[in-house]
Design brief:
- The complex is a heterodimer of chains A (about 120) and B (about 110).
- In chain A, the strands form 2 sheets. In chain A, strands 2, 4, 5, 6, 9, 10 and 11 form a 7-stranded mixed β-sheet that branches. A 4-stranded antiparallel β-sheet of chain A has the order 1-3-8-7, with no helix packed on it.
- In chain A, strand 4 and strand 5 form a beta hairpin.
- Chain A is mainly beta and about 120 residues long.
- Helices cover about 0% and strands about 50% of the residues of chain A.
- Chain B is mainly beta and about 110 residues long.
- Chain B has no helices and 11 strands.
- The model of chain B has no long low-confidence stretch (mean pLDDT about 95).
- The chains are: A mainly beta (about 120), B mainly beta (about 110).
- At the A-B interface, strand 5 and strand 10 of A face strand 4, strand 5, strand 9 and strand 10 of B.
Chain lengths: ~120, ~110
């Protein structure tokens, strides 16, 4: 059974940082690209970032480019999202997801950016 | 960036009826389109990929069609568990982009 378990969310002040982690199991993690998607209340789903299977290619939404960094550790079956210079508009539920068209989603982790 | 436009924003239907949801891409995406179903408080679930291939977890009353820029999700004989928000997403080009969703309600 494929499982994606996010952690690291919480409340942070504007300008602060958070690091999200996603522990994957139930599939050969190193064979798949993985993605972060966020759900902003009242707005819908927004793609944030994707990293290739080997980690040599990364892609970012314009809204997070230069502030967020996606990475992975295939030896630990873990995906990361380092989020710096956080803004109120980054407040959302963040989902870890398998693939570029996403066949499995984590349950999501809330991130709230507020003073 | 490819814009994905979903219509209508809200669709009011009764159980047993058919619902037709539309998704339009601002440029051709071939058949590189997926549909997701999301219920309140839950993660989205893959419903349709490659425009028309249904995910195993969903019954045959769900069907997808289209190519290029025009896509349709049809839900026949709506059941109570089908009331949810449906999103389309293109994976033909970077950045990946989602539509804003169609809420199917009673």
């Amino acid at each position: 059974e494929v499982q994606l378990l996010e952690s690291g969310g919480g409340l942070v002040q504007p300008g602060g940082s958070l690091r999200l982690s996603c522990a994957a199991s139930g599939f050969t993690f190193r064979d798949y690209a993985v993605t972060w998607v966020r759900h902003v209340a009242g707005t819908g789903l927004e793609w944030v970032s994707t990293i290739s299977a080997s980690g040599d290619r990364t892609y970012y939404a314009e809204s997070v480019k230069g502030r967020f960094t996606i990475s992975r550790d295939n030896s630990k079956n873990t995906l990361y999202l380092q989020m710096n210079s956080l803004r109120a508009e980054d407040t959302a539920i963040y989902y870890c997801a398998k693939g570029t068209f996403i066949d499995y989603w984590g349950q999501g982790v809330p991130v709230t950016v507020s003073s | 960036e490819i814009m994905m436009t979903q219509s209508p924003a809200t669709l009011s239907v009764s159980p047993g009826e058919r619902a037709t949801l539309s998704c339009r891409a601002s440029q051709s995406i071939s058949r590189n389109l997926v549909w997701y179903q999301q219920k309140p408080g839950q993660a989205p679930r893959l419903l349709i990929y490659a425009a028309s291939t249904r995910a195993p977890a969903f019954p045959g009353r769900f069907s997808g069609s289209g190519s290029g820029t025009e896509f349709t999700l049809t839900i026949s004989n709506l059941q109570s568990e089908d009331f949810a928000i449906y999103y389309c997403q293109q994976y033909n080009n970077w950045p990946l982009t989602f539509g804003r969703g169609t809420k199917v309600e009673i």
